[in-house]
Amino acid sequence: MLYKLLLNSCRNLITAFTVLFVISIYSNAHAYIGPGAGFAVMGSFFALFAAFLSALATLLFWPIRFVIRTIRQRRAFSRSRIKKFVIVGLDGLDPILTKKFMDEGKLPNLLKLSEQGSFSSLASTIPPISPVAWSSFQTCSNPGKHNIFDFLTRDLKTYEPKLSSVDIRPSRKTIKMGKYIFPLGKPDIRLLRKGIPFWKILGEHGIFSNVIRVPITFPPEQFNGLQLSAMCVPDLRGSQGTYSFYSSLNGTGSERTGGEIHPVKKNGDTITGELTGPENPFRTDRKILKVPFTICLVDDVSVDLKIDGVSYRLKKKSYTEWIKVGFKAAPGIKVSGICKFLLINAVPEFEMYVSPINIDPEKPALKISHPAVYSTYFSKRIGPFATLGLAEDTWALNEKVLTDDTFLDQSLQIEKEREQMFFDALDKINHGFCICVFDGTDRIQHTFWRHIDKGHPANKRYKKAPDNDPNAIESVYRRMDDVVGKAMDRCDDKNTILMVISDHGFSSFRYGVDLNRWLEENGYLHVIETRRSEKYLSAIDWSKTKAFAIGLAGIFINIKGRESQGIVSSGEEAALLRKEISQKLSALRFSADGERVVENVYNALDVYTGPYKTEAPDLIVGYRPGYRASWDTAIGKVTDRVFHENTKAWSGDHCIDHSFVPGVLFCNRPVNSENPRIIDIGPTVMDMFGISTPKNMDGKPLKIQIH
User: Fold this and answer.
1) Using CB atoms within 10 A of its CB, is residue 253 exposed (0-12), middle (13-18) or buried (19+)?
2) What sign does the dihedral 34-37-40-46 (CA atoms) show?
3) pTM of the model
């Protein structure tokens, strides 16, 4: 009873303090292959109490902090050449398409921005992959200094793939009470990206920052400002996004790459089912947490859903709003998540999609923002919103659970949430740094590139463009142009710099290259034939394997003393092997027409500097447009051939040589530097605020004409 009273008191206090807390911070500024299920429930109460204590401490010490920050800000802005620096991040915005649409008069605001200031391409990273590029953006350094080289890396002991950016482990100390286990500490959540984000340096000099949904910011770090995390924030199940599909059709199976298929039976006009949550870490048997639901047929196009004691009307092909669900883990312990339901068919067969269960931003199971109550603030301000790092469900589209139209609807809803967050932040900051990254440009180009590449193999499987928007890529560019226009209206004074940047461009992805099959055919990798169909490199005979591939970036050498079953000596033997594989792979041709497949093969020891360069793939493959590491290569499965037609909706990509896919740079002031790079943006921001670039950073300030 005492526990429940304390919990309710904490919740009420957080609700009451949240808006006041965030406003007080703004006043000082003058105005998301999973890491493991089961973590969420353990973290929920620690996150709750952390949020409460954070809010309480802020209120108690606000007068003192206000005086200190005011003094620091006066000193900081006495050196500054501007009052505010704003960046609109448009993930994947391509310079060639941008120029084409501008020339056609379809992007009037970006055109105006280029005429007012400047427009150029922006050099990305090697490889030009989002987690790598945005990590370099934050730290102003090459990947050898921040330790992110791909979405995935390999476990040195087991060779299994794992997330490269975050490691989540349960609390080590527990107490057992019958069938329950209670943690005595919070989960161990580690950001594997190294280096210091430039906004932390801004904060050390008294410059406040608001950082919204910049990739590879989970878990959030402490600094002088506000932050909402993005890429690699997991769902409530601890994965990077697991949808559920309920169907009364026979033979639906039980699992797919990005989700789970749940067969259900109709009993007259009623269907019952269960929503699957995480493992229960409070129980010794690790029982999966579930919430039952009931569906009642209303008519041919609508049903009533009852879940967690609340009823909702579902209309065919229309998403619900975010629905809160609570998973009971132990007496008095419940963890909250949010998800959306989509009725696909009511009759004659029932089909329903449920989005991945997102961490509830109002009552987060894990800390997804800095401070912890910032996500609660947004939930009160704009309502529930997507917290999953990769929120757009591309795998549900790949597997035809979602159609082009329903995927677009989902993406648009997420886009609107992001826009509300950005302008809420921008309207409250009169001094300091503000950035928001929009993902829609990346996700929609990934999934709809087939519409602008008429010869793409995916067009054999997907026959037409979406009914709602036959020009999805052009439309997302236009919508982002509108966002830029609104930002320009708010940044029209002489003391504000506005930049629009992207981390990379885009190209077609027609064929996947099975690097492991190529290594096998060339004698560098050996497969246990009876296990060939297995994933996660489990089919490899390590006693005979010299090199292997995992993820999207490149190839690892099986080095003695580094990998657990390494057979290649470091030093000369490894160096000769790198050179030999590079030369052979550079000569790879597409068997159908003899076209070159690879533009460059980079030796990590040559292209990276810094203490983490040996953690990179030993060789990074820079493909030519049209090619990319195959889907099977990414998860460590060896197939029977090197080339595979890509017939998935995910038809565009940027995991190719960086020379083909630079990003974009717009600025409302002329930029007088040649060949700007993404690592130069942070030093430019610091320079505008009168802060010197730290010597360990690789980026250099761009020359911006202020007056």
Assistant:
1) exposed
2) negative
3) 0.89
Peptide bond into 108 cis (omega under 30): no
Residue 533 CB: number of other CB atoms within 10 A?
10
Helix, strand, coil percentages, rounded to 5, for the chain: 35, 25, 40
Using the CB atoms, write b or e for 466-494: b if 16+ within 10 Å. beebeebbbbbbbbbbebbeebbebbeee
User: How far separated are the first and last CA of the chain, in Å rounded?
Assistant: 65
Q: Which of 443, 468, 477, 480 is CA-nearest to residue 318?
A: 468
What's the per-residue H, E or C state across 557-574? Answer: ECEECCECCCCECCCHHH
Per-residue pLDDT tens over the stretch 278-335:
888 777 777 899 999 999 999 999 999 999 999 999 999 999 999 999 998 878 788 8
Q: Which of 148, 141, 138 is nearest to 214 (CA)?
A: 138
d(CA 245, CA 338): 16
Question: How far apart are the C-alpha atoms of 426 and 435, rounded to whole Å?
Answer: 9
What is the tens place of the pLDDT at every residue in 227-284? 999 999 999 998 999 999 999 986 555 556 789 999 999 888 999 999 999 888 777 7
**Hey, what are 230's tokens?**
């993005």
Instruction: Quote the tokens at residue 216.
Output: 């590879």
Which fold is adopted by the domain 83-147+194-226+389-505+661-707?
Answer: Alkaline Phosphatase, subunit A (3.40.720)
Burial class (CB in 10 A: 0-12, 13-18, 19+), 182: middle
The full set of domain ranges for the chain reads 1-79+233-384, 83-147+194-226+389-505+661-707, 509-659
